[in-house]
Design a protein that fits this description.
- The chain is mainly β.
- It is built from 2 helices and 10 strands.
Amino acid sequence: MNIKILGIIVLAATLIACGSDSYDPDVPEPPTETTTIVANGFDIQVYQRTRTSGINDDKVTRGSVYTGSNSVAFDDVIIGLDTQTEYVKAIAKQKLFRPFSLINKAYALSPVPPKVEQKISSISITSAYDFSDEHPSGSSLNDLFLVTEASAGNQFYKFEEGKRAYFTVTEYLENNTHNKHAHAGFIINLILNTAPELDSSITFYIEIELDNGKVFSLETAEITYQAANI
């Protein structure tokens, strides 16, 4: 065989081998640092709602901090939960970089929103006060609170007639249990969907459990709601 032709065949075979996706387990893998965001607590604060109009009148946003000096309508108060997070560096392995490939590969370059490592497995909202005849002290109030804001990746509303229909806390948990993009997030806003039947201030207790077993107990400041028309 012509030596020149033989050389071309050997070179082509070498290039194909270098460009393959094969991996040699005997070659040491250099470590690389990766950073994860973990939740180690939650802050709770009560806000008055900022009213919007026009195309954004279905959005519920935080306004000024509620001071408790005045009574408010049941849907004018937002309970805001902010996650206390920290960045943790971990050592991860990666395959050796192959500098040459005969096959070009396309990669998505769209930015990925930050994500907290843990997921919320349960939320429990209660009060030491009777919320109503149907919801005495200590009973679950999850169905009476709507989730009006959550971090990207979590599902907290659906569209009905062109507007947002927010999930209750119960629906929020159900919709994100099997949502692979769900995570503890950085923010959750809660607002009542019905007025309490009481003539005094009320305090809510919120317990959050993460999928790693950690449980956090929170308590709101006293909120004075305007009397409901019973």
